[in-house]
Specification:
This protein has 185 residues and is mainly alpha-helical. The chain folds into two domains: 9-57, Homeodomain-like (Arc Repressor Mutant, subunit A); 66-181, Tetracycline Repressor, domain 2 (Orthogonal Bundle). 70% of the residues lie in helices and 0% in strands. The chain is elongated and about 65 Å long.
Amino acid sequence: MPKLWNETIEEHRGAVQEAILDTAATLVAKHGMLSVTMSQIAQEAGIGRATLYKYFPNVESILRAQHDRQLAGHLEHLAAVTHSGGDAGHQLEAVLHIHAAMTYEHHGSPMAAIMHHEGARQTQLEFVSGVIRRAAETGAIRDDVAPGELASFCLHALAAAAESPSKAAVGRLVQLTLDSLRLRS
């Protein structure tokens, strides 16, 4: 059992929540999403069931929180790319490559099977829309279609990376997506 006490109540609660999410992810990877129970999570996390229920009402809410945590990490990584410099066109290209690679690499993982609820999809859409808007403003890509529409197109197109046979195929998918965003001469 992990020792979860920290210096403040807030830190303790955060540590307990992280332990719950980490435990749930481990159990899902080991046993599958449908076989994980609240009792298993509590036991493996080293907390009582009553404590677990203070944090989450059911397994689905834990898995959703785990998914949101993964999405936040993914978006932080992408945001770091956009803040690392370079022109907006290159930033867009890097973001699309990273997104497609992550889709490809995690397509078979148990956590990838968790539903992509509307809030997560909306967050991704807003992020990619912002990157596309900046690229369009600099003339790197077309500006005759709204950034939100182009972002939706990109996310749907890059979802095909999950079924791609190789990393090379993922690269071609990203290139095709980028080509569709570029201005026609």
